[in-house]
Amino acid sequence: MALPIGATAPDFEAETTEGKIKFHDWIGNNWALLFSHPKDFTPVCTTELGALAKLKPEFDKRGVKLMGLSVDPVDRHAKWSEDIKETQGAAPNYPMIGDIDFNVSKLYEMLPASTSGDPLTRTPADNQTVRNAIVIGPDKKIKLTIVYPMTTGRNFQEILRAIDSLQLTAKHRVATPADWKQGEDVIIAGSVSDDEAKTIYPAGWKAPKPYIRIVPQPK
């Protein structure tokens, strides 16, 4: 069972491809995406890490730091990075955790607490549950978790879309409807009474039902 939305993201120290980090200190006042992989040199993950490297400017624009994780040593990550650049056209340009003691995978409930042994003797199938994409806010709370099977590559455009919604709704008392994209109409949050809404949205709103109050996206 993944950690619930609203839980504090567990803090940890870990070796990464960019040196040792303390996770909460590394996040600072930013947002973060922690994304995990069962093992190095796996095909779907290779495509994902290359895709994310190309999209890093989009995450930077949103103030979102990227942190990868794989249950393999950091020196193998460096060799894998060469393959990723060769086959995907871009190498990881963000830190990758070497979770050789399974500490982070256990803290985030991606592997059972009883997991032990040499990570190099484990197969991708042994670690198949290490496939989470976790969005963490500046308050260090978990805002979103998406778990993918090994056979399905992640849709990073959807993760960016969700981050746009998370950041908008953290700032304004609104919610975003199905398939919402940046710039489209939003819904006034249920926690806002009609009297409050009149002061926030003096021009009014569209209401196909009393509980569906539609307004333009706040600036």
Structural features, described:
- With 219 residues, this protein is α+β, with helices and mostly antiparallel strands.
- It folds into two domains: 7-153, Glutaredoxin (3-Layer(aba) Sandwich), CATH 3.40.30; 172-215, Antioxidant, Horf6, Chain A, domain 2 (2-Layer Sandwich).
- 31% of the residues lie in helices and 22% in strands.
- The protein has six helices and eleven strands.
- Strands 5-4-3-6-7 form a five-stranded mixed sheet. The protein has a four-stranded antiparallel sheet with strand order 8-9-11-10, with helices on one face. Strands 1-2 form a two-stranded antiparallel ribbon.
- Helix 3 (74-88) links the parallel strand 4 (64-70) and strand 5.
- Helix 2 crosses helix 3.
- It is elongated.
- The two termini are 37 Å apart.
- The model has no long low-confidence stretch (mean pLDDT 97).
- InterPro entries: AhpC/TSA (IPR000866), Peroxiredoxin_AhpC-typ (IPR024706), Peroxiredoxin_C (IPR019479), PRX_1cys (IPR045020), Thioredoxin-like_sf (IPR036249), Thioredoxin_domain (IPR013766).
- GO terms for molecular function: peroxiredoxin activity.
- The active site is at residue 45.
- One of its GO terms (biological process) is cell redox homeostasis.
- Keywords: Antioxidant, Oxidoreductase, Peroxidase, Redox-active center.
Class by SSE composition: alpha+beta
Mean pLDDT: 97
State the end-to-end CA separation: 37 Å
Say which CATH homologous superfamily of the largest domain is assigned.
Glutaredoxin
CATH C-level category of the largest domain:
Alpha Beta
Unreliable segments (pLDDT under 50, ≥5 consecutive)?
A: none
